[in-house]
Automatic annotation (TrEMBL):
Pfam families: CBM_2, fn3. The keyword Signal applies. One of its GO terms (biological process) is polysaccharide catabolic process. Keywords: Carbohydrate metabolism, Glycosidase, Hydrolase, Polysaccharide degradation, Signal. Residues 1-32 form the signal peptide. Residues 574-685 form the CBM2 domain. It comes from Dactylosporangium matsuzakiense. This is Alpha-L-arabinofuranosidase.
């Protein structure tokens, strides 16, 4: 069966459980009686609110089961709120009026009306991909007219094309594109034309443009004749005309451990995407939403790694405000068969079995529509988060155990615990900051390695649980006391007057009067209080130059009752306005896994700087130094130092020394923003 736009992305990130980390220790000893894992759940550290489109999957016109009652009922039971159509790269060859895809296979009974009937049965909204590759703006506008004017489907979400950066402009081609000009500029200009034509029919629809995902090819590349990267060019031109951006993420992984380490990159991925939108998309860019409409794991697509990856990826993306995460896909077909975690994996990117066999007939999948492990993970996600829930920060002190949490309007709290250890159970001790759970045993839903479904029981306590190897667990907790009468949460803060050491925060007031406001910084799963005030403005001081801060606001009344946390704000401090040195860092050549960096160091003071050493710290753990020149380069931990060479030892006032390096990255590449020269913090030009 065709596999749409799925590519088995290469690349690996070494993980703490790689075989080398265990040395020659016997596996039984390495995993024997691990110490309890400490879990922190922090209601003061609010994250995003869950949209009704949060849980999504892809549906494809080459899937004979598209829209059938059996599939629709399975998707409905898993809480699917978004269905994407007509299926990956097929979207750029698909013509909806004739229900044809020249060069591809179209299954019977998979036309748009059939899809919409299935979506309505599921209770999901459609995400429709307009044909950019071989279609026209008029064809897309006619589709909007048919969907929303003729049929009254209220189809609100429309993306212009699919992975259009894969049209050969960067040297690799899999996406159909009949345009003579395959540049991001041409794509962006066409997006504007599509949006105008489609919104002329229905001004209420939301139109999205395709972006590359940070640290995934061709992110960072600048094509011949282009003014910048794909994302920079597309956002600069199409930003004012779009309502959301569309990402795909296939991070790969050379092993189960590698693959399960990848979701740890998501906070940095989303930071970069939001920064690009703010920087390039023009005025009012904060209105632009973010969707992740394709993702899948690199190893163990049908078995427990797929389930664990899904739970982690959906949770991390939703915490960062993504309004939908859509698994690739419902059915896909058998691939390379292997054994993962003691279970047969069919190498099938589908969530449900296609019921087919290998070409030689030696291995066959379970019957059609049998759920694979990722389906059960999605169903468990439906228990974990409901539309309107506020996700909150949670974390652990064990890299093999992950935690996520959400709070509900009725006062309940849900906690998702992920044990990525394939060999050992882990006892967890759970502490709650800002929340007191009932002493009653919580409802515990669990999906175990190799299980045919989710089990549910009241067991353990809110403070202690045991996690089986390779398992997903959701706890549903009730509060010890009613939260009625607590203040209403303040609105999302904004920031102004950001310097290297200070930032002024303002926020919409709580609708509850007579409250004070507590300002918190998120530090991992903990909250560090920056101060409190009775006004709706606060200037934070003693900040660190070139550092990312995520802050939230909590309202507290005179009785000590606290509100929900505000939505978070993330900002970065800058460099000093004046200093005795200035630094300019330029990414001069990028190849999506490394780059050449050039640093110009200028003496802006009145005295000579002799025997200089420049120091900076990588912003993420995914970055490292490969080599350098015009100085002696070293890296210790995340800190990089370059010491003068014989020919540039002294910097007279106004003089500049240029040094360079090759940097490597296996995750989002965030350039350093703070530099010290002989201990003095420099201005960054």
């Amino acid at each position: 069966m065709p596999q749409g736009s799925v590519r088995r992305a290469a690349g690996a990130l070494a993980l703490f459980v790689a075989a080398g980390a265990l040395g020659s220790m016997p596996l039984s000893d390495a995993y024997a009686d691990p110490a309890p894992t400490n879990v922190t759940v922090n209601t003061k550290a609010g994250l995003a609110t869950v949209a009704d489109t949060a849980l999504g999957v892809n549906h494809a016109i080459w899937d004979s089961q598209l829209g059938t009652p059996a599939v629709s009922d399975l998707l409905g039971a898993a809480g699917v709120g978004m269905l994407r159509y007509p299926g990956g790269s097929y979207a750029d060859i698909y013509h909806w009026q004739t229900h044809t895809a020249p060069g591809g296979y179209v299954a019977p009974n998979t036309d748009f009306d059939t899809f919409m009937a299935g979506a309505q049965r599921v209770g999901a909204q459609p995400m429709i991909i307009a044909n950019y590759g071989t279609g026209t703006a008029q064809e897309a506008a006619d589709w909007v007219r048919y969907a929303n004017i003729t049929k009254g489907y209220h189809a609100n979400w429309w993306t212009i094309g699919n992975e259009n950066y894969g049209n050969g402009h960067y040297g690799t081609a899999w996406e159909a594109d009949d345009h003579a000009d395959k540049s991001p500029k041409q794509y962006a200009q066409e997006v504007v034309a599509y949006a105008q034509a489609m919104k002329a029919v229905d001004p209420n629809i939301k139109v999205g443009a395709v972006l590359t995902t940070p640290a995934n090819w061709p992110d960072g590349l600048v094509g011949a004749g282009d003014a910048g990267t794909w994302n920079q060019v597309v956002l600069s031109i199409a930003g004012p005309s779009i309502d959301f951006v569309d990402l795909h993420w296939y991070p790969g992984g050379g092993s189960e451990a590698d693959a399960l380490a990848k979701p740890a990159q998501i906070d940095d991925i989303m930071y970069v995407v939001k920064d690009q939108i703010a920087k390039y998309a023009g005025a009012g860019s904060s209105r632009i939403g973010i969707s992740l409409t394709e993702t899948n794991v690199g190893v163990g697509q049908n078995t427990q790694p797929g389930a664990l990856f899904l739970a982690q990826t959906y949770s991390n993306m939703l915490e960062n405000g993504v309004f939908t995460v859509d698994w690739w896909d419902v059915h896909n077909g058998i691939g390379t068969v292997s054994t993962i975690g003691g279970q047969t994996d069919y190498g099938d990117f589908g969530m449900l079995s296609s019921g087919n066999c290998t070409s030689d007939g030696t291995v066959c999948q379970p019957p059609m529509n049998t759920p694979f492990a990722p389906y059960h993970a999605l169903k468990l996600m439906h228990s974990f988060v409901h539309p309107g829930d506020q996700l909150i920060r949670a974390g652990t002190d064990n890299p093999l155990v992950a935690a996520h949490a959400a709070r509900r309007a009725n006062g309940d709290l849900t906690v998702l615990l992920v044990n990525m250890d394939p060999a050992a159970s882990h006892a967890v001790k759970i502490a709650y900051d800002g929340y007191t759970p009932s002493t009653a045993a919580p409802v515990v839903e669990t999906f175990l390695n190799g299980a045919a479904g989710i089990t549910s029981a009241q067991s353990g306590s809110a403070a202690a649980q045991s996690l089986a190897p390779y398992s997903l667990t959701v706890l549903t907790l009730h509060p010890a006391t009613s939260a009625s009468g607590a203040p209403k949460a303040p609105g999302r803060p904004s920031v102004s007057a950001v310097t290297d050491r200070t930032a002024t925060l303002t926020w919409p007031a709580s609708t509850t009067t007579g409250v004070k406001y507590e300002v918190y910084r998120q530090v991992g799963a903990r909250s560090e209080q920056l101060g409190e005030t009775t006004s709706t403005s606060f200037t934070a001081g003693n900040l660190t130059p070139g550092t990312r801060y995520t802050v939230t606001i909590v309202a507290r009344d005179g009785s000590g009752r606290a509100s929900w946390s505000s939505p978070p704000l993330t900002f970065a401090t800058g460099s000093p306005a004046t200093s005795t040195c200035s630094v300019r860092l330029t990414d001069t050549n990028d190849w999506a896994s490394g780059y050449v960096g050039n640093i110009d160091i200028t003496n802006t003071g009145t005295a000579a700087i002799n025997n200089w050493t420049l120091t900076f710290t990588w912003p993420t753990p995914w970055q490292s130094l490969s080599s350098g020149w015009n100085g002696t380069w070293t890296q210790t931990g995340a800190t990089v130092k370059v010491t003068r060479a014989d020919f540039n030892t002294n910097l007279a006032p106004g003089a500049t020394a240029s040094v360079g390096f090759v940097g490597a990255y296996s995750g989002p590449n965030i350039l350093p923003a703070a530099f010290t020269l002989n201990g003095n913090v420099c201005t960054v030009a």
